[in-house]
Amino acid sequence: MEKKSHGGSGSWRQAPAPVRQLFWIVRRAMLRPKRRALSFGYDHKRYSRNFDDGLVTAHCL
Predict the structure, then answer these.
(1) Number of C-alpha atoms within 13 angstroms, CB side, residue 31?
(2) What is the pTM of this model?
(3) Is 39 in contact with 50 (CB distance < 8 Å)?
């Protein structure tokens, strides 16, 4: 009878190379520190410039 290893420490080493590569990519990604989401905002003048229609009003002259 042939003995089969079930979950032994060396069993993952017998996996095909692409599977091992994927394992290390996933493991590295999980251990990598998480980056905080970037936050940004507009100040009032820059935001209003987005809606400027190019017309000059009389009170601005």
Answers:
(1) 6
(2) 0.38
(3) no
Rounded to an integer, what distance in angstroms lies between the CA atom of residue 7 and that of residue 21?
A: 19
Q: Three-class SS of residue 58?
A: helix
Q: H helices within 1-61, ranges in order?
A: 17-31, 44-49
Query: Tokens in use for 52?
Result: 């400027």
Other C-beta atoms lying within 10 Å of the C-beta of residue 41: 6
> SS3 for 34?
coil
pLDDT tens sequence across 14-50? 889 999 999 999 999 888 877 777 766 767 777 777 7
pLDDT, residue 43, reads: 72
